[in-house]
Amino acid sequence: MDQAYVGRSFSFADAYEVGRESIRQFAQAIGDENPLYVDQVAAQTAGHLDVVAPPTFVIAVIARAQDAVMFDPALGLDFSRVVHGDQRFVHHRPVVAGDVLRSTVHIDSIRVMAGNDVIGVRTEVVSGSSEPVCTAFGTLVSRGVS
Amino acid sequence: MAEEPIRTINYVDVSVGDILPPLDLSIPRSQLVRYAGASGDFNPIHWNDRAATAVGLPSVIVHGMLTMALAGRIVTDWIGDPGAVAELGVRFTRPIPVRDDDIGAALAITAVVGALDEQARTARVDITARYAGQTVLGKARAIVRLG
């Protein structure tokens, strides 16, 4: 893998518009019947502008931005050998329906551990021009050819 | 329609060692298809046995991010408002194969309050997810804001 990528960041041009139906479908897919995912009145009563997204919904928000960087052949990541090592979301505020979110992908680290390439990715998600919404930390492991 | 108030948990009512209500779930293959659609993760190892066995897996496996979402559920079921989750993180330590029957994979999720931060009024919840008696996540933790 190309070490020159460490420290680089990539702003994804397309915004992700969070829709109520996208949140509903995601909540159904994880089998979660929390009313704040589907009921606007309940969400607003709890102090939110609109229905709230499940904590891991952000993975769908950042997927295209992250894939655009990870699938860049110049990075040299062999995707047929990649597994997800870890994932962590730091929520600066909840994602709600109506949010228009932009993602910037940062390559924090590229290491070789036990013959595997290990890449640390941080994606900063902001609303509007700069309001921080979520920081997503992920580790991808490309298993070495043994 | 009368709205049920969303339960909130107050900092003073939480102690280190408190055990959250456990969650026993079965993940049938249909849920993997549903999750693929909702998340946009169409990696065929989650819906096609041929693709899964080609990379050495016994069968299709659960999306790691679906397992993480289910681990998050034990926390949001407890606190009521998912917006109170300030942080959620996991390591994926073991794949979960999903049988082609009505049950699929049975997942047992437990959680305990591991630490409290009085100044921030937050709790750290330590989560354990087991499949066939073995843990499938490492360092699975949430930080939640309490009332």
Assembly status: heterodimer
Question: What proportion strand of chain B?
Answer: 25-35%
H/E series of chain B: EHHHEEEEE
Regions with little confidence, pLDDT below 50 for 5+ residues of chain A? none
Please, how many helices of chain B?
3
User: Could you give the distance between the termini of chain A?
Assistant: 17 Å
DSSP E strands of chain B, number: 6
Provide structural commentary.
- The complex is a heterodimer of chains A (146) and B (147).
- With 146 residues, chain A is an alpha+beta fold.
- Chain A is 20% helix and 36% strand.
- In chain A, strands 1, 2, 3, 4, 5 and 6 form a 6-stranded antiparallel beta sheet that branches.
- Helices cover 22% and strands 32% of the residues of chain B.
- Chain B has 3 helices and 6 strands.
- Chain B has helices at residues 29-39, 49-54, 64-79; strands spanning 23-27, 85-92, 105-117, 122-131, 134-135, 137-145.
- Chains A and B meet through helix 1, helix 2, helix 3 and strand 3 of A and helix 1, helix 3, strand 2 and strand 6 of B.
- Strand 3 of chain A pairs antiparallel with strand 2 (85-92) of chain B, so a sheet runs across the interface.
In short:
By secondary structure, chain A is α+β, with helices and mostly antiparallel strands. Chain A has helices at residues 20-29, 40-45, 58-70; strands at residues 9-11, 16-17, 82-91, 100-113, 116-127, 131-142.
